[in-house]
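Entry for the shared binder. Reason: the reviewer on the internal report wants the predicted structure included alongside the sequence.
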Amino acid sequence: MLFKYNLGQYATDEVSGYQGTINARALWDDGNQQFSLKPRVKEDGIMTKGQWIDADHFTIDSEKGVVSKFGDPEFEFNHGDKVKSRKNGFTGIVSGQCQYLNGCHHYFLTGSSWLSRLLGVKGEDAWFHEAELELVEPMFVRLKKKKKPTGGPDSPSGL
């Protein structure tokens, strides 16, 4: 399973208490997962904006939520791929992937970081829809996933 939680699940962030339906999920090049929680419409009919929250402290309420027909996404592009927008010619490195409840896939392209400047890729960092992108060079950058710190001390050698 690529993502820790499914689209359509109703989640509560244990740290902030924020609640909502998972309507989008993003995977970053360092392995971090974030989820967009969209709250229910208030009694006065006003819709509240969703919030992106890291996935570490969610409680899932199986009685609420919606059914999503989308399981783990099959992204067309991978982290580290060099891709180009057919609409505006923007070229960048895939450093984030996102799947929405409606099935759309978006990619965060890094075009202005120190790494991009070093590699000769120019532009701003931005999100793009999968349908507008084309592959320039697969695995243009080899990314190593960082291990998340556990908060505890390193194990003694030999254990």
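Summary line for the report: Confidence is low (pLDDT under 50) at residues 152-159.
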